[in-house]
Amino acid sequence: VLLRDVQALTLHRGQYTTSRRTAAVPQLQCTGGSAGCSRVPEVVQCYNKGWDGYDVQWQCKADLENVYRFGQIEVSCEGYDYPDDPYILRGSCSLLFRLELTEEGERKVKNSGGFGSSYYQSKKDYFDSGSGAVIVIVLLILAFGVYKFFLSNKQSQQSSGQSDRFSQPFWQSQQAPPPPGFQSIYT
């Protein structure tokens, strides 16, 4: 079939393309977007809106809730004999698309923190699950451990006899005297 002559494509979720030279792929493939891929429509129809001299320009429609819309779309079909063959294998077309939120969808997300979409719900659940608190606690324990290590190391050096100046490293033996009025019991 000549690609330019194809007036409409009907693509179904869960069905695969026909293939001759390459592996079959799903007819509908969501690639993300602000709404995620939790609401992939059952059926999408894409209409040939004209030719730009290089490729067919497609407009795709589906029964979507008012909060969703198609973003970037790309219809891809298998060339019959070679990749850029203007003739395509019947049934070989697939749609790659991004699912975006409409203005109404963005308002609902902002007002309610999500509207049941598993994409937003999973993000919310991740942050509400306390994983951030666990990370903070682990970091505090590590910091306390490092503090105690250096504190015990310093105390062991003080108790090992600082009177012998030759047994200490050069940088410790060259410490400046304490300032006037400083009592050594506060070190």
From TrEMBL:
<keyword id="KW-0732">Signal</keyword>
<protein>
    <recommendedName>
        <fullName>Store-operated calcium entry-associated regulatory factor</fullName>
    </recommendedName>
</protein>
<keyword id="KW-0106">Calcium</keyword>
<comment type="similarity">
    <text>Belongs to the SARAF family.</text>
</comment>
<dbReference type="GO" id="GO:0005789">
    <property type="term" value="C:endoplasmic reticulum membrane"/>
</dbReference>
<dbReference type="GO" id="GO:2001256">
    <property type="term" value="P:regulation of store-operated calcium entry"/>
</dbReference>
<dbReference type="GO" id="GO:0006816">
    <property type="term" value="P:calcium ion transport"/>
</dbReference>
<keyword id="KW-0472">Membrane</keyword>
<dbReference type="Pfam" id="PF06682">
    <property type="entry name" value="SARAF"/>
</dbReference>
<feature type="transmembrane region" description="Helical">
    <location>
        <begin position="130"/>
        <end position="150"/>
    </location>
</feature>
<keyword id="KW-0406">Ion transport</keyword>
<keyword id="KW-1133">Transmembrane helix</keyword>
<feature type="region of interest" description="Disordered">
    <location>
        <begin position="160"/>
        <end position="187"/>
    </location>
</feature>
<keyword id="KW-0812">Transmembrane</keyword>
<dbReference type="InterPro" id="IPR009567">
    <property type="entry name" value="SARAF"/>
</dbReference>
<keyword id="KW-0256">Endoplasmic reticulum</keyword>
<keyword id="KW-0813">Transport</keyword>
<keyword id="KW-0109">Calcium transport</keyword>
